[in-house]
Each structure stands twice: as C-alpha cells, then as structure tokens.
Amino acid sequence: MKASRIVKELLMVGVIFLMLFSFSTEAFSWGDATHIYISDRLKARFGRYNTNEMWGSLGPDIFNFIFDQDLCPIWLAEQTHGGTTESSMKVWNAASTTIEKSLAYGFLSHNERWGADYTAHISGLMFGEGVGYINAKAMVLLDTPIDPINPYDPDLNPKFSEIFSSIGMTSEQQLIITHVIAEYAIDIMLKSDVDRFIGRKLRTAASSRSSKFPGLLVEAYAADYAANCAGIDYDTAVSIITSAESEYRNSMSFYGKALSLPQLIAVKLIAKQIVALAPGFLGGPLPIPEVDAVEIVKAVIYVSMEICDDYMTEINATIEFVGNNLITNGIVY
Hints:
Shape: globular
Oligomer: single chain
Helix content: 55-70%
Largest sheet: none
Number of domains: 1
Radius of gyration: 20 Å
Number of strands: 0
C-alpha cells in the first residue's frame, strides 16, 4: 500500500471513529473486560454473588451507546458514573436482598468519584496523575507517529494527532478516539497475559446475572430520569432502561466470546465489530473498502498495546484503591 494511500485511508478511519465515539466524553474509561477483572479481584463473595458483582461492575456503562440526544444520554452517564455523592449511591440504596447487594457492590466499584473509573479518567495512581491513566495513554498515542511509512524520512510519518487534526477533529474528539482504542488494547492484553478466562467470565456474567438487576436500575433511576428528561414519562424511562440493559448483555456476550479466542483472531473480530457499526452512523457505505478499514483499525490497536505495556501496574494499584474506598464508603455486604 503506497504512503499516500495509507494516510488517506487513516483519515477515513478517523471519520469512522469520530462518528462512532464522539457522542459523550463520559462514555469511556476502563474497558469492559478490565472492569470484570477488577471486580473479580475485589470479590466480596464467591459463586453466584461474585458473578453478579462482575455484571454489576459493567452497569454504569450500559447507557453509553444511547446516541439519541432526546433520550438525555449525558444525564444518564453522569448519574450512573457518580456525578454526585447522591447519584453514586442510588443503586446501593435501592438494593435490599443479598443478591441485589452483590449487583450494587459491583456497580459502586465502577464509579468515577472513587471507584475504578477515577484512576482511568480522573487521576492515575502510577501513571497519568491529574488526567487518568487511560487519558494519559490516549495522549501518548496521539503523539505517536503511525507505523513508519518511510523510516528514512520522518516527515512522511505523521502523528495520529496530525492525521485527525487534518480532518477537523477537535482535541476532545481525538482524545475520545484514542481513549477507546487504549481500552480495547488493555482488554486484549489482559486476556493474553494475565487471565486467559476473562472472556469466559464476561460471557458468564452477562448470561447468568440475576434477573433482579433491571428492576434495581429502574428503582434507582427511572423516576428521576423521567423527571429530568423532557418528553420521557415513567413508563418510557422503564422501557429505555430495561431495553438498554438487555442489548448490552448481548453485546457483552459477543465481546466475551471474541476475547476468548487467540489474540490474532480477537483483534480482528473486535476491529470488524467497530467497522461494522460505522455505516449506520455514517448514513451509508464506508468511504473505503471494509477490509482496508479493518486492517487499519487492527494496526492502531497493536500500536496502543505497545504504549500501554505497563497497564498491570495501574490496574493492581486501582484494585487496592477501590477496595479501600468501598469499605470507607460503607459498601460491604
């Protein structure tokens, strides 16, 4: 592939990512498999309780891919990620049975105020102080030249930030794109290097979570959601919450299956999933052949894997940080 063609197609892939991921800066922190791993290590209880803790830990991200602004996705993201002390406790306060407490325990482990997403998105403990580990790595990726087109002439090796800027992306949009890539990269490395069963655990959490969970989310958020989102009544709020949870379970089942496969296949499947979503948001076919788009997304994931090679240091520190904060905030069952 000639240099000019590579740059051109990277620009097109940049448009794809922009369409897919520029809806909310609240949407991305640690990846789904990473949250599963953190929750499994925290493990307040064993067996089905731990399974529910793991699924609960994904709960705040269930509404990330509601793109219709009339459905107030930003309000939902702020609530579920703990925008205030009150909002971060809603699910825990709604839980009454031990099973519900296990779901809520996982849910609280995720929050952005003092949970796992704090280290990813607000301030890293070992890397990314003041910006968050994932955000810091996204910044590094933006400053990284693409896989050398011409190693003998650095001027022909533009940085990712230069590529994205050339098509008019703001710095915030660029950060979202590279943020998402870093999440996928860490999830993939986590499965390959640390926990080869993490994909299976993700699938099990999705398929075996207690049927109480949708009702727990409804009790915690539906009334306030209806009150704070114009045009949404209580029954509609209930329907949106339960439907989003069901769709997310299906998505996580696929993702868990993909992660369970060998790394080369997993990366390809994840890249294909990203590219397959694009036409719906672009309102038409991809501007480049799908096979080329997939290859480029794969390449970017591999670059991010190299940049995030210290990920376990941050994850281990995060687990200790979150465990202490759960106890401090009375999240014990």
